[in-house]
Design goal:
single chain; alpha/beta; two-stranded antiparallel ribbon; elongated; binds zinc ion
């Protein structure tokens, strides 16, 4: 059984949490919905806005919360949704972003945001939301995959938006690329970084995806397709198998840091050179392990979840893929520099518990 991610929710918490952690295929997925809610805490009244505006897209991403909940249920995956409207504080912005607390949205002035206590709103609503995302990712362990759900208006400034679904991404296309392909195959009109660009520094996915090296994607759904709860659930039911296929296409993810902040660009390295550099690093690792006979395999296993024997096994598996048959001891000898039994007799100390089959 995978772990259950249980967190309490109190009245003060600025998010809704779905704990997930079921046995479903979503064991490594975390759904996010930054613009899930049109609600405001009582103390903020209606921010001086006309009540009718709260039914519109300026208060929340219409339908996005319902789609998020339905996807979380379907994948038995955890989800974190904003509890309050983006009009209070936009959770998909960095703390220093000038649009964090909007004074004007789609032509409407927001009186209650003039002279707002921005620092206070960050402390009460923005930081706890992002802190909980961090806690959840830590609790999930491994390499979680972030899927952030949003929705967009069918037209903007008098221009119709043709896309049914937009896939927003920055440099990490691990999930975005297969998802766009699978959506296209399923007959959707897909926007590649439309209607917005996914390159927004310090937004939610930059912070929790790019900076942590986790695969991530932002999905924008056109609001007329998810205008009520039933339509949103139906859409989620169409989207789920497509997302599942895209996740399969992506394969088992590893941490990949695509844009270290402020770092100079990586030099271009051709594949042959890259392989020889990787081989050099491997040889050095093996030489290092041969020199450090004081380091026990059991300690390596306890600390890092791998040991010399694992390295030998990985070598054997890589060889098998090239059609070269090595048995376990032969492969391990390449790591040890001697038959494993001999190394064991010479250097193994402490408990002789069996850590490998
Ligand atoms: Zn949004």
């Amino acid at each position: 059984m995978p772990p259950k991610y249980r967190f309490s929710m109190t009245d003060d918490e600025p998010f809704e949490l779905i704990s997930g952690g079921g046995p479903g295929p979503g064991g490594r997925l975390l759904f996010l919905c930054d613009h899930a809610s049109r609600a405001l805490p009582d103390a903020f009244g209606d921010l001086g806005l006309e009540r009718t505006l709260f039914a519109t897209h300026i208060a929340c991403d219409i339908g996005a919360a319902e789609v998020t909940r339905a996807l979380a249920e379907r994948f038995e995956a955890p989800a974190i949704l904003a509890r309050w409207s983006r009009l209070l504080v936009d959770l998909n912005r960095g703390e220093d972003d000038p649009t964090l607390v909007m004074k004007l949205s789609d032509g409407s002035i927001i009186p209650g945001n003039r002279g707002a206590d921005v620092a206070g709103r960050i402390a009460r609503f923005h930081r706890p939301y992002h802190a909980r995302i961090d806690e959840m990712l830590d609790a999930m362990g491994g390499v979680p995959v972030l899927v952030s759900m949003h929705s967009f208006t069918p037209s903007w400034k008098g221009r119709a938006r043709p896309w049914e679904v937009g896939v927003l991404w920055d440099r990490d296309g691990r999930l975005a690329r297969p998802l766009m392909r699978r959506l296209g195959e399923a007959g959707f009109t897909v926007g590649d970084n439309e209607p917005y660009s996914g390159e927004l520094e310090n937004d939610t996915l930059y912070r929790h995806g790019t900076m942590r090296g986790l695969p991530h994607v932002l999905i924008e759904i056109r609001q007329d397709l998810i205008a009520d709860a039933a339509a949103a659930r139906a859409f989620a039911a169409r989207l789920a198998p497509i997302l599942e296929l895209a996740l399969e296409d992506m394969g088992t993810p590893a941490l990949t840091f695509t844009r270290p902040l402020g770092a100079p660009a990586m030099p271009t390295i051709d594949e042959k050179t890259r392989e020889s550099l990787e081989a050099a690093a491997f040889r050095r690792l093996v030489a290092h392990l041969r020199g450090r006979t004081d380091v026990q395999n059991i300690d390596l296993m306890n600390l890092a979840g791998f040991c010399r024997n694992c390295l030998g096994d990985w070598y054997r598996e890589a060889a098998a893929e090239k059609g070269i048959a090595l048995d376990k001891d032969q492969a391990r000898e390449i790591v040890y520099g001697m038959p494993p039994a001999e190394w064991k007799a010479r250097y193994q100390t402490g408990p002789t518990q069996k850590i490998h089959k």
